[in-house]
Inverse folding.
């Protein structure tokens, strides 16, 4: 059992939603129900602090076209899959790769119409940078858009438009199904809570309110990414007006806002907000009793955001700003002074260790875009943790897959050795850190009196200071419990 209260504990007693006791099994008090954990490792459950539920769920529920060997086979699979869907559903599929086919021509719009019995069809290629679509979707994409193809194979802007239309055509029932699929998948990975980053551009009000109504899975904390919309966020049931409230874009598309230009293109990206807008938003959030937050990736965007924090502190007080526990999402490129700003205003850094795993290191995306020196300064987890910035780990799923142990491992083996976290520190950022990020300071640790939220792990292998060795196989989640209620696996007998 991974417990700072009693590292020798092998049993715990759950009473209602709390841990009533933990210690050696031989000393266990009597209980109404006894569950033999059969040597499973028990740890606090994970929290994923940045997810997009519906788009991930649609992928989980979508048609998997990986391994198809011809356009004909794609059409057969579309036909069989569409037959399982309501007549008004959109057929979403992914993973075809025509470069491996004897005849490298993907299905045409008319063929997709027939296979899906008239339902709209969107099938993304394996690399997700293009898609083939049915006639109905094709007719809704402007033929002048870059990347448009009359053969129904859409790239670049035309592809983004088609994806937006396809996702907007998802019915309420299909959306609910996707959300439930996502939550069940998260629970099965030992995740007991997620922070949904919703917003008017990236999802919708109905999407968020529908999600917040679902019960029986991980706890969902909503963030609504709209400027000056603290009252709306609160009315929608969100805990914050933030998340993907964009102060800039992303490095991959050269839109993250930089102080100095990109190495591989003559631009410094784009800042979408001014310090005054940031300040107004934060004051609005504090007035309405919700957290504020911003998506800020580049150093110029973070500088704008922190200038806004200083203005908000001047108009209210530093203590009021700190007490609101605002957040910044991603925070990928920042120096010591910017990190100092996070500390000064008590800002939670919601960060994604998988970004360093995917894009850090020599020859990878950060180095290509920023050059070696700035690439080394990205995702400075060690520097942030070292001066007391509260870190909350997340995946940004579907940008990177839900993989909490992978995130712990990525933070512990950062490409820049100086920025590595200890395994226990990284684990805390993915458990306790996520609860702290929503203002729940008691959660995320196994101790008497704490909420009974934990996960059971099989095949955890040899433990190092209480946690699985990072070079061993990923442990399998055998059960997940949220506030005393089983949400996955072998712990049904607890209730
Ligand atoms: Zn996001």
């Amino acid at each position: 059992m991974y417990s700072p209260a009693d590292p020798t504990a092998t049993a715990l007693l759950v009473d209602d939603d709390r841990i009533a006791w933990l210690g050696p099994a031989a000393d266990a008090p009597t209980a109404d129900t006894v569950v033999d954990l059969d040597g499973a490792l028990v740890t606090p459950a994970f929290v994923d602090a940045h997810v997009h539920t519906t788009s991930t769920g649609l992928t989980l529920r979508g048609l998997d076209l990986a391994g198809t060997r011809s356009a004909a086979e794609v059409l057969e699979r579309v036909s069989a899959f569409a037959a399982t869907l309501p007549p008004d559903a959109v057929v979403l599929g992914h993973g075809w790769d025509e470069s491996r086919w004897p005849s490298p021509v993907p299905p045409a719009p008319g063929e997709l119409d027939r296979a899906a019995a008239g339902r709209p069809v969107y099938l993304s290629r394996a690399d997700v940078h293009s898609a083939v679509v049915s006639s109905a979707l094709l007719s809704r994409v402007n033929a002048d858009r870059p990347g448009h193809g009359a053969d129904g194979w859409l790239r670049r802007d035309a592809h983004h438009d088609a994806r937006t239309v396809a996702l907007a055509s998802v019915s309420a029932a299909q959306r609910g199904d996707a959300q439930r699929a996502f939550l069940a998948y998260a629970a099965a990975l030992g995740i007991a809570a997620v922070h949904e980053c919703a917003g008017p551009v990236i999802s919708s009000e109905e999407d968020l309110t529908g999600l917040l109504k679902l019960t029986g899975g991980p706890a969902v904390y909503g963030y609504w990414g709209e400027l000056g919309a603290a009252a709306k966020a609160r009315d929608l049931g969100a805990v914050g007006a933030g998340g993907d409230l964009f102060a800039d874009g992303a490095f991959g598309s050269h839109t993250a806002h930089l102080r100095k230009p990109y190495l591989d293109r003559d631009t410094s990206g784009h800042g979408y907000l001014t310090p005054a807008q940031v300040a107004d938003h934060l004051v609005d959030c504090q007035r309405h009793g919700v957290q504020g937050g911003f998506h800020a990736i580049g150093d110029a965007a973070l500088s704008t955001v922190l200038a806004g924090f200083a203005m908000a502190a001047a108009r209210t007080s530093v203590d009021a700003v700190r007490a609101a526990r605002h957040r910044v999402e991603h925070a990928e490129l920042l120096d010591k002074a910017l990190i100092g700003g996070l500390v000064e205003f008590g800002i939670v850094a919601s960060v994604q260790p998988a970004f360093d795993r995917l894009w850090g290191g020599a020859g990878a995306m950060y180095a290509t875009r920023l050059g070696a020196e700035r690439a080394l300064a990205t995702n400075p987890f060690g520097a942030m943790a070292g001066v007391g910035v509260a870190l909350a780990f997340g995946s940004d799923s579907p940008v990177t897959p839900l993989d909490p142990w992978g995130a712990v491992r990525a933070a512990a083996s950062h490409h820049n050795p100086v920025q590595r976290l200890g395994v226990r520190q990284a684990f805390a950022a993915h458990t306790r850190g996520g609860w702290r990020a929503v203002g729940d300071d008691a959660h995320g640790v196994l101790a008497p009196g704490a909420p009974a939220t934990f996960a059971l792990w099989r095949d955890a292998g040899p433990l190092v200071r209480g946690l699985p060795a990072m070079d061993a196989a990923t442990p399998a989640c055998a059960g997940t419990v949220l506030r005393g209620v089983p949400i996955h696996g072998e712990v049904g007998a607890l209730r």
